[in-house]
Amino acid sequence: MDEARILASADVDERAKIGAGTAVWHLAQVREDAVLGVDCVIGRGAYVGPGVRIGDRVKLQNHALVYEPAVLEDGVFVGPAAVLTNDLYPRSADVGGALKRPGDWDALGVTVREGASIGARAVVVAGRTVGRYALVGAGAVVTRDVPDFALVVGSPARRIGWVGRAGEPLEDAGGGRWRCPRTGEEYHEVGAQGERRLILPNR
Fold first, then answer.
1. Distance, CA of 82 to CA of 13 (rounded, Å)
2. What is the pLDDT of residues 105-150, one digit of tens each?
3. What is the DSSP string of 170-201?
4. Angle at the Cα of 91 (from 86 to 92), degrees rounded to 5?
5. 0.85 cut: is pTM over it?
6. CA quadruple 82, 54, 17, 90: dihedral positive or negative?
7. Contact predicate 122/134, CB 8 Å
């Protein structure tokens, strides 16, 4: 397996762990104690915060910002200029007027599950989870957890459909069944109204 490729203009802390085959491009920053898996792509100007955990084959596009303590599982895609935040109640100074330091607040990370994609300029609010193979549309603002396979758009983000593992919108096959037009995989919709979710049987 190839060694990691780190461009000279990238800023990668010596305490970060970079997996084999991973590329860190121009002006990207990877902070201390971050862990990146194998075959990842960290685009120009992207930011990976201290202690962030990134799985294998993850792509962070140009200027994506991933703040600690986020966890991105295998196969995640984060689009250009997307932001994964970590503070629900941000303030620069405390009530006494002193500049806040790391010990003055608790970072609350975003979790992005296997195969999910975050569109360009989307924002995921601190503490939210984006489910497996879900797709967050460009410019969306995610304020609630996103179910597996959900397609969400808007501000605040809302579900408008389902997507399959291939990333394409699923077609309604009737009877609570949804089919992927690319792979033919069939998914089943379950749960009460308002809490609907999708499962891929035998996986």
1. 22
2. 889 999 999 999 999 999 999 999 999 999 999 999 999 999 999 9
3. PEEEETTEEE-TTT--EEEEESSTTS-EEE-T
4. 105
5. yes
6. positive
7. no
